[in-house]
Specification:
Length: 339
Amino acid sequence: MDNIRRVASEAIQKIKNSDDKVLESIKFEYLGKNGILTKILKSLSHYSIEDRKKIGFEANKIKTILASEIKKKERCIKRDLLAKKIRREKLNCSSIFCFPFSKGSFHPIVQTIQDMILAFKLLGFSLADGPEIETDWYNFEALNIPENHPAKDMQDTFYLDGTKSLLRTHTSPGQIRVMEKQKPPIKVVVPGRVYRNETSDASHSSTFHQIEGLEVDKNVTFLGLKMILTKFIHNFFCCKLDIRFRPSHFQFTEPSAEVDIQCLFCKGKGCKICKNSGWIEMLGCGMVHPNVLRSVNYDSEVYTGYAFGIGVERITMLKYKIDDIRLFYENDLRFLRQF
Ligand code: DAH
């Protein structure tokens, strides 16, 4: 299974970096008659029925994802070719209503969210969302954050005047909304925008993005959490970085941990960015607190789960070596055109 997923991440990376000539050969290499995935599917008869089912399901899923990524890339290439052709022929396009001469692109934060979702999809997660305007129950209480907890302080939370609503301070309420609607097994990621009442500086912003992850089932363990996050980090950064889990505290998980990755800037040697520690903090995670499971009427004796929350801006800054979070919101085209 690991092999199939590695093949998939490798293929997605190749598709992203391809042009029209290379794309055709990538399609052939992975999805053609003698392509890598076709070969995997053909080799299923060597496995037990149980494994055949698992591998077949995974390989077919990845085949569909790759086919759709290739289609997307083909559309982009076609659009670029058309734009180039029109520029070359110097056609008078003034009558064509709002034809996009210069190619637009996704905002780097959107790109990171899309890349992260794809990486989690390859690990079997589905996708959900939740509202940005939340109630106290979803944002705090159902997550085992009691009435007098400092996180609920007016200093951190934007409350909406004259209502009992607030702007969600994290994507964790997405966990509650998914569990309310579905019974286990659950394996889902919830991306979204979140808000904190704090002053902006190079590493803080009052609006930012997170991706929440949640798996709940009968035998979900901390080991499962470690495996998933390690695979995600290796796939996302496309290399084998060192990773460490540090004990931490979150109200909604017990035990809780924070995950650090080896500093990408100095490869763990120590530099200004990692404050000479060689490590960079990446996310919070842990085993879902039984009180959280009880708040959605799950039997906490039967089910266990893990959850994690990843800051999208932080990861994007690491990936592209950006040192000021405010650049993401200024919409300066000189910055945006680099992505
Ligand atoms: N909600 C936390 C925050 O915004 C992040 C987080 C930590 C989410 C641990 C989780 C978790 O799901 O298990 O700081």
